[in-house]
Every structure is written in structure tokens, then in C-alpha cells.
Design a protein that fits this description.
The protein has about 260 residues and is α+β, with helices and mostly antiparallel strands. The protein folds into 2 domains: about 130 residues, Diaminopimelate Epimerase, Chain A, domain 1 (Roll), CATH 3.10.310; about 120 residues, Diaminopimelate Epimerase, Chain A, domain 1, CATH 3.10.310. The protein contains 5 helices and 18 strands. A hairpin with a 4-residue loop joins strand 4 and strand 5. It starts with a strand and ends with a strand.
Length: about 260
């Protein structure tokens, strides 16, 4: 079996920036174990697979070790592939996912705006494991799918050192460190103690929690956000009721064919 594959750098306007995602368009769904093996072989944070069904696209995302329920940068990358290679006349897309309907639309400046469900985190006690894992101490915690940790300054986020083995048993997919920004409304870094890549470059799904979190703290609905990983990325964000919006650009790094042996 031969499948198309694209590798797209998302939330950036240049190759080697942002967050890389693999994208595999499918005519029909293939076996879950094969998709998981492809994601493991790609060894990127996420590989997205999608199938067109009438006027919508069903989409799924696989990390190298498991499927996840929501991914921002691989959805942005998938929309980029559709807009630029598969349906060049389209200006909007509906994705059907395990997290409901996700939308993407093109803008005049070649950005793509994602429309995701808001996942407002609830304030909670800071888990004791956090104090052993990081060199700076957070001052507040809030939980949803991810654990949001508030730090005092942007400089603490930039200089955060970590030992994630302390966090492997926490019941959260990602650990998100955030603080009020100097030039941006807020900054963040995102960690996954159980992934092959411990720090994620630019994490759209984490912003589904970060945006409502900072809406309450800053009392505003629109933001410019910066993820301060080594491959930095910028997100133009907003919130309206129970939906969050993230705008970003993409750059194509690779187009090719993968060869999957018959089973």
C-alpha cells in the first residue's frame, strides 16, 4: 500500500520553525495499528490522518505511542495540505473529530484560523510532584485535559529547567507552564512526561485551555501568544463563548510517498 505524506511546519512562516506534523490523506480509513505504526515510524509529535466524507473531513491524530483526542498544530497542517494541494478553491473546512466539529478557514494574509472548543481549566492545588520537577516554583495550578501552571514572570518560563520523570503518573496529557508576557499577552512552554519528545514546540490544543485561562486573568478576549520552546511559535488567539480561535501560518518541508507492507 502506498500513501501520500506531507511534513508541515505549523505556526510558523518558515521551514525549521514552529511545530512539525506529518499529514497523511486517506481515501478510506486503514487499520488503527497501521496508523499507529506510521506515527511511530515518523517519530514526530503527531501524525494526522484524514478522510473526506461528503463535504467534511474526518480527522484523527496519533503520537508515536498513542492516539490523542485533539491536536492543534497537526490540524493546522492538515488544513494547509487541503487548501494548497487537494482543494485549492476552498476557503473553509469542517473537520469531524473525537472532540467534535473543528473548523479552519483561510485569511487574506495566508494565515489559517482554527475554531476549536474551549477547555477552561479549573483551579486546583499544585501537585507536590511539580516542585521536584522544575527549578522554579509555580504560584497557581488549574486542570483540564492538561495541567496549567502559572509562574511569576516570562523569564522564569524561558529559564525553566525540568526533570519530567517525577510527572509520569500525573493524570494529565501535558504540563503547561505559562506567565504573563512582556511583548506578548502570555507566554508558555508545554511538556509531556510520557512522550518521546519531552517538550512540544507549539501546541495548539494546549491553547484551548490557555485562552480561557488568560481571558479571566486579563479580562480580554483577544491575545497574541508566544510559545517559548527552542522552535518558537506565535499564535493570534481569541475566544467567543465556548469556542477559541487560533491563527497561524505553515511551511511545507516534505512531500512524498510511504510504502506500507501488506499484512
Amino acid at each position: 500500500m502506498e500513501l501520500e505524506i506531507y511534513q508541515i511546519d505549523a505556526f510558523t512562516d518558515r521551514v525549521f520553525g514552529g511545530n512539525p506534523a506529518a499529514v497523511c490523506p486517506l481515501e478510506d480509513w486503514i487499520d488503527d495499528k497501521v496508523m499507529q505504526s506510521i506515527a511511530e515510524e515518523n517519530n514526530l509529535a503527531e501524525t494526522a490522518f484524514f478522510v473526506k466524507k461528503e463535504n467534511n473531513y474526518e480527522i484523527r491524530w496519533f503520537m508515536p505511542h498513542d492516539e490523542i483526542d485533539l491536536c492543534g498544530h497537526a490540524t493546522l497542517a492538515s488544513a494547509y495540505v487541503i487548501f494548497n494541494y487537494l482543494e485549492t478553491d476552498a476557503d473553509h473546512i469542517n473537520f469531524i473529530s473525537k472532540s467534535g466539529v473543528l473548523k479552519a478557514r483561510k485569511t487574506d494574509d495566508e494565515s489559517i484560523v482554527l475554531d476549536f472548543p474551549s477547555r477552561a481549566p479549573k483551579q486546583m492545588e499544585i501537585p507536590e510532584e511539580i516542585f521536584s520537577a522544575f527549578n522554579h516554583r509555580p504560584v497557581e495550578a488549574a486542570g483540564s485535559r492538561d495541567l496549567i501552571l502559572l509562574f511569576n514572570t516570562e523569564e522564569e518560563i524561558r529559564t525553566l529547567e525540568y526533570d519530567l520523570h517525577f510527572l509520569k503518573d500525573l493524570p494529565f496529557l501535558c504540563i503547561v507552564a505559562t506567565a504573563k508576557g512582556v511583548e506578548y499577552d502570555f507566554v508558555s512552554r508545554v511538556f509531556d512526561a510520557n512522550a518521546s519528545m519531552p517538550e512540544d514546540p507549539v501546541t495548539g490544543s494546549a491553547h484551548a485551555s490557555l485562552i480561557p485561562y488568560w481571558q479571566k486573568r486579563l479580562n480580554k478576549d483577544s491575545f497574541m501568544a508566544k510559545q517559548l520552546s527552542e522552535r518558537e511559535g506565535t499564535l493570534k488567539c481569541s475566544i467567543d463563548d465556548d469556542r477559541v480561535y487560533m491563527a497561524g501560518k505553515c511551511a511545507v518541508y516534505l512531500k512524498g510517498t510511504i510504502y506500507v507492507p501488506s499484512r
